[in-house]
Design a protein that fits this description.
The structure holds 2 protein chains of 2 kinds. Chain A is mainly beta. In chain A, 0% of the residues lie in helices and 52% in strands. Chain A is built from no helices and 11 strands. Chain B is mostly beta strands. The radius of gyration of chain B is 13 Å and the shape is globular. Classes of the chains: A mainly beta, B mainly beta. Chains A and B meet through strand 4, strand 5 and strand 9 of A and strand 5, strand 6, strand 10 and strand 11 of B.
Chain lengths: 114, 110
């Protein structure tokens, strides 16, 4: 089974702190994604990556950056956390661009910014 | 751009009732369509999918048919159980980028 692991299930941070959310997948997938999930808004794509050291902006990249130094790991970085970034963050992966199949999700990281 | 619209919830049903969740999409190409489910406290998991027009996806008693003429992918189940209580997301995959609907919470009472 594909496993996507997000390192922290729950985090509480203060405004202005730098926040790292880590995601690791164990199936050699090419593509990795970061979404945020908010009630009534569904899932919105923050950033995605098709390859190591490659990144593309999604629909709501402002206030976020990402890092993909190794194929299996995709990190989401909040340079200076703000209260409007309180949300559930979901990491996902897929084998490749030509793959017409499902996204494999981690369990999510719930971030609260005070 | 591509988008998905699904009916708002919460939808509250009694056990053994019929469930329908409407989903329509806008896309420039021919996307694959999905329903994902999120049970309480868990991540999203694939419920079913359809990759081309007139395909029917099915799983766990749920069904959805890819209707190109009405750009719809409505989810149905004939007899729901309490264990079907969850949030359901309609989604499309257009060239590797997924777009999700807002999600519909379903509550099934005994």
């Amino acid at each position: 089974d594909v496993k996507v692991t997000q390192s922290s299930r729950y985090l509480v941070k203060r405004t202005g702190e730098k926040v790292f959310l880590e995601c690791v997948q164990d199936m050699d997938h090419e593509n990795m994604f970061w979404y945020r999930q908010d009630p009534g808004l569904g899932l919105r794509l923050i950033y995605f990556s098709y390859d190591v050291k490659m990144k593309e902006k999604g629909d709501i990249p402002e206030g976020y950056s990402v890092s993909r130094e190794k194929k299996e790991r995709f990190s989401l970085i909040l340079e200076s956390a703000s209260t409007n970034q309180t949300s559930m963050y979901l990491c996902a992966s897929t084998p490749g661009l030509a793959f017409t199949g499902e996204l494999f999700f981690g369990e999510g990281s719930r971030l609260t910014v005070l | 751009g591509d988008s998905v619209t699904q009916m708002e919830g919460p939808v509250t049903l009694s056990e053994e009732a019929f469930l329908t969740i409407n989903c329509t999409y806008t896309a420039t190409g021919y996307p694959s369509l999905f329903w994902y489910v999120q049970y309480p406290g868990e991540g999203l998991q694939l419920l079913l999918k359809a990759t081309k027009a007139d395909d029917k996806g099915s799983n766990k008693g749920f069904e959805a048919t890819y209707r190109k003429e009405t750009t719809s992918f409505h989810l149905e189940k004939g007899s729901v159980q309490v264990s079907d209580s969850a949030v359901y997301f309609c989604a499309l995959d257009s060239w590797g980028k997924f777009q999700f609907g807002a999600g519909t919470q379903v509550v099934v009472t005994p």
